[in-house]
């Protein structure tokens, strides 16, 4: 008997296989967002997953628990299920939103405020069973404060406005082999500028010793928390955070929260391991 | 003898022909931004212009004065000149940025603060001869506060966050035949979401009697003026404004300026007529 936990985000999809002895195998494929990724592309990724684990092991899979970006609407949950089920006809397949996955991973059966801070961002209040209050996610064009693409945008605004120190400016230009004209080209003549902007946080992580970088990263989280104040009207909120951006910049995350009289209870990079521990509750 | 004034923006290119009697003919073609519009596309538009005025009149053109979006860099001015010159071999062709065009149209040979508020936005200080201080234009992904696409984004944020009144929400959904899911589709699965966002101000113009709409439009200009405070450090600034968005929402523009201790001297929709009056200075 084998179980599989899947967590799909905009940038990557994590697979965690757990066999009957409790031994785990983990691997990654491309990202899936059920709103934007085409059915054909999702099928391709899922077939690659099936091929990777092999026919014999595939037949042994009894339960698949999928948490995914874009899986809040029921019709998207059904779409994902319809793609996965034929590949594993004997498995029971359950599909939830990635935000509910973050709640399961962090809060289990307790209530709490939960945020995803990865490539994009999302936040909610979870009552211990379900999400009862949701800050709508508007995507990188209109929102996603606190996420990786938004952080990339913030940094580029500083760069293009000419307010970065010379040393940081040169460091950025040399790392990405760009100048001002090339940046504008990547933003406005490239068909997927968001993918390029999403790589900028990796550079900022390397340069985190620079106080200017710390300031920009903190500002990204400050914008996130300020935005949440529109939706969650309590004096002091304790946040559970899931996602790579929150995980890699924990110091700035905590600073931004503290400045706004909020606090961070825990930050985990990948929810799949935590979900596994509480598996029995969520299928 | 004939002269031609051309003003190209993101959405449209205006042509003004002036014959030796001073009689004028005006028409419009598609927009050109020398940074983003392909050479082939610019050539196509300019050939259409040449065909429209006809061979005989074309030979009579002695001077062409082109002001264009994206024409701040010299190499883009040269690119435009190289496209136009072969079509009118006997004409003298001069190419300037659209922002300098806005200065010529509003300030003439006097100094002043000048803004373009059209599909995008730009601002500068003009000393009566040239632009000596420039607020960099970052485009709709990172900037363009005060422009039409930014206004569209602001409105969509209100809509998607569910903070619009029911009546305005229904009015918008019926006008554009959309719901929340369709809006997200247009934003994130369409390859040119900015073109759709740029149409939203037309709707807001129709609904300007609604105080909620007035508030959003004013906020757009407030963001523009707040942004300018980073670049132009004077106590009180008097602005000359060129462009459709500033022209169509003058009341909100003046309100936003006044709230920040600035003022609006004049607003003109199309600079070409004004430029014509001062023609002798700028060729």
Summarize this structure briefly.
Two copies of one chain form a homodimer. With 283 residues, chain A is α/β, with parallel strands linked by helices. Helix content of chain A is 46%, strand content 23%.
Average pLDDT confidence of chain A is 90
Largest interface, C-beta closer than 8 angstroms, per-chain residues:
A-B, 23 and 23 residues
Number of domains as seen in the coordinates of chain A: 3
Q: What is the number of strand segments of chain A? A: 10
In the CATH hierarchy, the third-tier topology of the largest domain in chain A is known as Nucleotidyltransferase, domain 5
Distance between the termini of chain A: 15 Å
Oligomer: homodimer
Instruction: Determine the number of helices of chain A (DSSP H or I, runs of at least 4 residues).
Output: 14
Give the helices and strands of chain A as they follow along the chain. EEEHHEHEHEEEHHHHHHHEHHEH
CATH superfamily of the largest domain in chain A: ATPase, nucleotide binding domain
Choose one word for the global shape of chain A.
globular
Helix content, binned percent of chain A: 40-55%
Read across the widest sheet of chain A, the strand sequence of neighbours is 3-2-1-4-5
Strand content of chain A: 15-25%
Provide an overview of this structure.
Two copies of one chain form a homodimer. Chain A is an alpha/beta fold and 283 residues long. Chain A folds into three domains: 2-104 and 271-282, Nucleotidyltransferase, domain 5; 109-142 and 218-268, Nucleotidyltransferase, domain 5 (2-Layer Sandwich); 148-211, no CATH class. Chain A is 46% helix and 23% strand. In chain A, the strands form two sheets. A five-stranded mixed sheet of chain A has the order 3-2-1-4-5, with helices on both faces. In chain A, strands 8-7-6-9-10 form a five-stranded mixed sheet, with helices on both faces. In chain A, strand 6 and strand 7 form a beta hairpin. In chain A, helix 4 crosses helix 14 (271-277) and helix 11 (211-228) crosses helix 13. Chains A and B meet through helix 5, helix 6 and helix 8 of A and helix 5, helix 6 and helix 8 of B.
């Amino acid at each position: 008997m084998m179980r599989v936990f899947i967590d799909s985000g905009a940038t990557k999809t994590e697979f965690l296989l757990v066999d009957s002895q409790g031994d785990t195998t983990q691997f990654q494929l491309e990202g899936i967002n059920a709103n934007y990724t085409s059915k054909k592309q999702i099928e391709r990724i899922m077939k690659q997953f099936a091929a990777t684990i092999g026919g014999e092991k595939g037949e042994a899979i009894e339960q698949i628990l999928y948490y995914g970006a874009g899986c809040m609407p029921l019709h998207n949950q059904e779409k994902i299920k319809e793609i996965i089920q034929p590949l594993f006809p004997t498995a029971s397949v359950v599909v939830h939103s990635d935000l509910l996955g973050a709640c399961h991973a962090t809060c289990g059966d307790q209530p709490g405020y939960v945020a995803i801070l990865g490539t994009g961002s999302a936040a909610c209040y979870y009552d211990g069973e379900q999400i009862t209050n949701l800050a709508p996610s508007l995507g990188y064009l209109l929102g996603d404060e606190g996420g990786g693409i938004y952080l990339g945008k913030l940094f580029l605004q500083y760069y293009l406005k000419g307010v970065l120190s010379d040393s940081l400016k040169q460091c950025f230009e040399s790392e990405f082999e760009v100048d001002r004209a090339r940046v504008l080209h990547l933003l406005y003549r490239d068909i997927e500028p968001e993918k390029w902007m999403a790589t900028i946080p990796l550079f900022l992580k390397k340069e985190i010793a620079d106080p200017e970088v710390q300031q920009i990263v903190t500002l990204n989280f400050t914008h996130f928390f300020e935005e949440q104040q529109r939706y969650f009207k309590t004096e002091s909120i304790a946040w559970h955070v899931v996602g790579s951006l929150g995980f890699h910049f924990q110091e700035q995350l905590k600073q931004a929260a503290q400045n706004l009289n909020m606090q961070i209870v825990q930050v985990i990079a990948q929810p799949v391991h935590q979900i596994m521990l509480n598996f029995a509750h969520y299928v």
